[in-house]
Amino acid sequence: MGLVEYRRKRDFRVTAEPRGGARRRRKQLSFVVQKHAASHLHYDFRLELEGVLKSWAVPKGPSLDPAVKRLAMQVEDHPLEYGDFEGIIPQGEYGGGTVLLWDRGTWEPVADGAEGYRNGSLKFVLHGEKLQGGWMLVRRGGKHAEPDERHWFLFKERDQFASAKTEITETAPFSVSTGRDLPEIAQQARRVWGPDGESSGKRTSNSRRTLPARTTTRSAAKREAAKRTPAIARSTSGSAEITRHSTAGSREKPAAKKESRLGSNDESAGVQVAGVTVSHPDKVLYSEAGITKLDLAHYYEQVAEWMLPQVENRLISLVRCPSGRGTKCFFQKHPADGTPANLRRFKVSEKRKTEEYLTVDDLAGLVSLVQMGVLEIHVWGSQADQVEKPDRLILDLDPDPTVEWRHVVAAAKEVRQLLEELGLVSFVKTTGGKGLHVVVPIARRIGWVEAK
Questions:
Q1: SS3 285
Q2: Distance (Å) of CA 256 to CA 281, 298, 302, 309, 376
Q3: Can you say whether the dihedral through the CA atoms of 388, 394, 395, 397 is positive or negative?
Q4: Distance between CA atoms of 277 and 52, rounded to whole angstroms?
Q5: Distances (CA, A) of 171 to 65, 215, 356
Q6: CA-to-CA distance for 150 and 57, rounded, in angstroms?
Q7: 381, 379, 360: which is closest to 371 by C-alpha?
Q8: Number of Cβ within a 10 Å radius of residue 231
Q9: CA atoms within a 13 Å half-sphere pointing along the CA-CB vector of 448
């Protein structure tokens, strides 16, 4: 791999990371583990091999328990000088954050190290200040893996240095170089980066190609809102459903508002909700639960504070069932004649033409959807101002009808755990009567093809 990728990702006029140069071959091979608080906390595991430090990002760090296999994502090779680096990478630069020298020492392969690395099965012995004894790095797929496979697993061999009781990352958190912890190193920013105490460097290239876990402030706020969301309309495949219970700890519901009926002698009389006239308010939309059009409008009125952060400024596609669930429904992507003015229109350039889509900005927009007989709201994974830069990845768990619900929940938990090992934060959303969405907020830096 060499240092080409390493150098391409960094602006050495801004960052103090070593550029890397020629080094004499040493009799003993070095290794280093650096605790790295970047967009997410992880441990960079590096082994000297073929003149560079072969490197893996281990989200949870090494474990002394032989039964625990830790995910290790291979990253670009680093120069040997990087083994001494402890300090701060400026925010905005690749890997921006604080770096702590967590462990260091020498290592020796059990057999031919270069061959084991190429075959995806590297067995070795560490002689470090914290990590010692036999270890293994195994690539997913082994020697038959695809050329771009980056998933490896790091685990401890069973020997006198193994321990199922000791979580070494918790019991030994300090730097082997200075004895400091991450906050103490972070406080040295003024000394390291100059009189203003911080770096003003900005990334101008799009060289970072991994999916970042860090989200924008807006996305973080939406994720926080999602944690508080009471049960809301769940929709998929024409099976929209409403549950009436509230989530423990959710905010108090606003006081009921007086309804203003227009022409009260007529059963089709409209009712004002959030300034929108809801006609035929007594029309039943969900016959199995007896939920009317007005019930749905009032429901949106109560949950708007939690729901709007999930839909506002996102293009939406709709499933409309004017006569209620179980009757004739149709899918609508673009505005048509009679589309309420409360729904904002947004133009999107497609392959051969420009099309208009709809977005919802406020409660009036939500109620307008009710007036249209909308029972499903499908939102895009990007925001309307940058439709080609997704800020959410959505993993759709769509089980066969014979699969029990408890298995769907277990699957969602497993997906979440894997994402956490990759350093990605996720949350779950209901999607209908049978499935779940595991949603991963990401920074808006990549396109749809790479996201997929």
A1: strand
A2: 16, 9, 9, 22, 25
A3: negative
A4: 69
A5: 14, 30, 57
A6: 10
A7: 360
A8: 15
A9: 7
Long-range interactions of 398-404: CB distance < 8 A, separation 24+: 398/236, 398/431, 398/434, 398/435, 399/434, 399/435, 401/434
| List of residues 6+ apart from 433 with CB closer than 8 A | 234, 236, 239, 241
Q: Which residues contact 348 (CB under 8 A, 6 or more apart)?
A: 315, 354, 355, 356, 357, 387
CA-derived radius of gyration, the chain: 27
Q: State both tokens at 439.
A: 């949603």
Within 10 angstroms of residue 280's Cβ, the number of other Cβ atoms is 17
The answer to whether 330 and 320 are in contact (CB under 8 A) is yes
C-alpha separations of 184 from 113, 174, 179, 198 in Å: 37, 10, 10, 15
279 with 270: CB under 8 angstroms? yes
Secondary structure of 159-174 in HEC code, one letter for each residue: CCCCCCCCCHHHHCCC
Provide the token pair at 43: 């441990």
Residue 385, CA distances (Å) to 90, 274, 305, 313, 346 in order: 28, 26, 22, 8, 9
Evaluate the CA torsion angle 272, 273, 276, 277 in order and state its sign: negative
**In a 10 Å sphere around its CB, with 0-12 CB exposed, 13-18 middle and 19+ buried, how is residue 52 labelled?**
buried
Q: What are the helix (H) ranges across 79-130?
A: 113-119
Q: What is the DSSP string of 306-355?
A: HHHHHHBTS-EEEEE-TT-TTS--EEE-S--TT--TTSEEEEEE-SSSEE
Nearest 5 degrees, angle CA 413-CA 147-CA 144?
Answer: 80
Which amino acid is present at 57?
A: A
Residue with tokens 């069932």: 321
d(C-alpha 33, C-alpha 55), whole Å: 9
- pLDDT by residue for the chain (452 residues), tens only, comes to 678 888 888 888 888 888 887 565 567 999 999 999 987 899 999 999 988 999 999 999 999 999 999 999 999 999 999 999 999 988 878 888 899 999 999 999 998 999 999 999 999 999 999 999 999 999 988 778 887 788 999 999 999 999 999 899 999 999 999 999 999 998 875 444 362 333 333 333 333 323 333 333 333 333 433 333 333 333 333 333 333 333 333 334 444 444 555 554 455 568 999 999 999 999 999 988 889 999 999 999 999 988 998 898 999 999 999 888 888 899 898 988 888 888 989 888 887 889 899 999 899 999 999 999 999 999 999 998 899 999 999 999 988 888 888 999 999 999 998 888 888 889 998 876 678 999 999 989 899 988 88
